[in-house]
Write a structure and sequence with these properties.
The chain starts with 8 loop residues before the first strand and ends with a strand. The strands form eleven sheets. The protein has a six-stranded mixed sheet with strand order 1-2-4-3-5-6. It has a five-stranded mixed sheet with strand order 36-42-41-38-39, with no helix packed on it. Strands 9-10-11-12 form a four-stranded antiparallel sheet, with no helix packed on it. It is built from six helices and 43 strands. It is mainly beta.
């Protein structure tokens, strides 16, 4: 915690079921001003305004919003929940109304608070954030505004944290972040059909080739987003290269058929995808067949047209194919690849109908090769050399400059496929860069304004991590990093300055439809039909709840008696929502057992539709209904 400026005090407030950290200044009897920071900022962003408002006689309070700083890291983060946070904070400060000031995404929350709870807002001040309707209209009318206001962050990992992946297979996961700061976790393709009544974001289809997919026989994923928001995903499977595209839902196509299923991914290199100005995808990959061939595939009607970019002669003892990267540079589609026969990183671009190669760096392993393209259409690459160094190659016209930016010792220097060392590079529209790489102690993140000197950032939570991927917003205001948490088996995500405790994906075993709970029923065929109160529920081994029907008394507060008795160490929680995929009511932390917790709910009026509940780690096997009956019903469990 940083020392505070004179006159600023710290507060601990409880509102909407979580604890908020806040900074405050000014006389307690003064009119209340509640100040909501933007993304990715903190309460401290208002440190200059708090004393000024205090001098003017106001009681100014700036909280760390939900999921930020020292406030509890507990979702959900939908707009309705954030509005209830604001109104709850006003009440926790002993007031009925407040002047609500919001900046950036805090401004969006402020607008929504004024619209949904006008009785709690004395005045509204929105900074750098237009009214939601105006913003939505601008996004519909302007492609440029859409790209500035909403973008999806997808962080590719060599393998997915699926505890039962070796037995059943794996899904190809997709995680997105909306402009409101809400994460959505779904998939581009999955190993089984979606069970009836279950909704998985992005509508992933069943893909038979994912059955039996493991970290050893697959080799990574990549994604590109086109100007219309369409998503283009590729992955190297156990028997070929696959592409999934779509805006609302995905369809899967096989770009390359290897002809047999592999036990190890060595012959198939990691693929990548880029999108041209017309919105068409280009997929680049390297395959080992009588030597190695670097290939690029583009859509031609309903089929894929494939060209050979370069051929690498067969050699004894040569490494398997390295990652192949593709980007849209000023020269058009440009492919970065590694000639494993001589140890050289190359780029190839089209000149007429011919692909012409340029050597970028010789005498290097090229492990972990990654590519980014700046606003001027120049490519830049990061990769490992043979001496434990991370190299940065930058294009300038027809030439390249190469320099070491860090010394590193990857945890598994001889790893191949999914287990190979990884680097990542991103660049904003001003040319500032962010890079990340595997090191012996975990993932290292570094930034540079000029590409000459990279300054490592302190990221304690990436210790022991693997497989980093970085991103940056076009204006450079936000730097993002994702990495695989080996110990926790999570895909984790951080924002520069706030890299703690946010898991984008928790361990989630592949669903077997036979394990999916049946629709909630009671004795009368409907949950709660017998009028009996039932509020005891256990999370059990095998990723199941002890019941899929809970019943609470209408018109009064009550508590669910939740416990996790799963002795396998699998984390579970219970999350109550108004309806499936709807507004959150209350949720517990995702924790391994043993856990016992009273979960407060209510009051809910008699006659209201049943609520929905689920375990957020295993929502397709652990779910049910929370019904309401007239108070005074029999039964047992956590009453109010």
């Amino acid at each position: 915690m940083r020392p505070q400026e004179p006159g600023i005090e710290e507060l601990s407030l409880v509102a909407n079921g979580i604890r908020f950290h806040a900074l405050a200044a000014g006389p307690d009897p003064g009119p209340l001003v509640l100040m909501l920071h933007g993304f990715p900022e903190l309460a401290r962003s208002w440190r200059h305004q708090l004393p000024a408002l205090a001098d003017a006689g106001y009681r100014a309070v700036a909280p760390d919003l939900r999921g930020y700083g020292e406030t509890d890291l507990r979702g959900p983060y939908d707009v309705g929940t954030l509005v209830r946070d604001v109104t709850g904070l006003i009440g926790a400060l002993g007031r009925d109304r407040a002047v609500v000031v919001g900046h950036d995404w805090g401004g969006a929350v402020a607008w929504e608070t004024a619209a949904r709870a006008p009785e709690r807002v004395e005045r509204l001040v929105a900074i750098n954030c237009p009214p939601p309707a105006a913003l939505a209209d601008a996004m519909r009318r302007s492609r440029a505004q859409l790209r500035k206001s909403w973008y999806i962050l997808f962080f590719q990992l060599p393998w997915l944290p699926e505890r039962r992946m070796a037995k059943d297979g794996a899904a190809v996961g997709v995680a997105s972040l909306s402009a409101e700061g809400v994460w959505t976790r779904g998939a581009a393709a999955q190993v089984r059909e979606t069970p009836t009544g279950v909704v998985i974001p992005y509508g992933p289809p069943f893909e038979r080739a994912l059955v039996g997919a493991t970290a050893q026989n697959t080799n990574g994923t990549d994604i590109a987003i086109d100007a219309e928001g369409g998503k283009h995903v590729v992955w190297t499977g156990q028997n070929g290269i696959y592409y999934a595209g779509g805006a609302e839902s995905f369809s899967v196509e096989r770009v390359f058929d290897y002809g047999l299923g592999l036990r190890r991914s060595g012959p198939l290199g990691r693929a990548s995808v880029a999108v041209d100005d017309a919105g068409d995808p280009w997929v680049a990959y390297t395959v080992s067949q009588r030597g190695q061939e670097v290939r690029i595939a583009s859509r031609s009607g309903d089929a894929w047209a494939t060209e050979t970019v370069a051929s690498i002669p067969r050699c004894e003892g040569c490494p398997p194919p390295m990652p192949t990267r593709v980007g849209m540079t000023s020269a058009g589609p440009t492919v970065a690849w590694v000639d494993t026969s001589v140890g050289a990183v190359n780029v190839s671009s089209q000149q007429g109908d011919t692909w012409v190669a340029t050597e970028v760096a010789g005498g290097v392993s090229g492990q972990g090769l990654d590519m980014a393209v700046d606003a001027d259409g120049n490519a830049m690459l990061t990769f490992f050399d043979d001496d434990g160094g991370v190299q940065l190659a930058r294009q300038s016209g027809a030439g390249w400059s190469v320099a070491k930016i860090a010394d590193a010792q990857p945890a598994e220097p001889e790893g191949v496929g999914n287990l190979a060392p990884t680097t990542s590079i991103a660049v904003d529209d001003q040319g500032a860069m962010v890079a990340a790489w595997d090191d012996a102690d975990g993932v290292v993140l570094a930034t540079s304004d000029d590409g000459e000197t990279f300054t490592p950032l302190e990221t304690l939570d990436t210790i022991g991590g693997r497989a980093p991927s970085v991103g940056t917003s076009p204006d450079g205001a936000n730097v993002y990093i994702a990495w695989y948490d080996v110990e926790g088996e999570n895909l984790r995500f951080g924002v520069q300055g706030e890299l703690a405790e946010l898991a984008v994906a928790a361990p989630s075993p592949t669903v077997d439809p036979a394990d999916v709970a049946p629709p909630p029923t009671g004795d009368g065929g409907e949950c709660g039909a017998d009028g009996e109160v039932l509020l005891d529920i256990e999370a059990q081994a095998g990723n199941v709840f002890s019941t899929n029907c809970l019943v609470g008394p209408a018109g009064e507060e009550f508590s669910i008696a939740y416990s996790n008795v799963d002795d396998t160490g699998t984390p579970h929680n219970i999350h109550v929502l108004v309806q499936e995929g709807g507004e959150s009511v209350v949720m517990t932390d995702l924790l391994p057992g043993p856990v016992e917790e009273e979960v407060p709910v209510g009051p809910v009026d008699e006659g209201e539709p049943a609520y929905y509940f689920q375990c957020d780690a295993h929502p397709t096997t652990m779910f049910g209904q929370l019904a309401f009956v007239a108070a005074g019903g029999g039964g047992g469990g956590g009453g109010g």
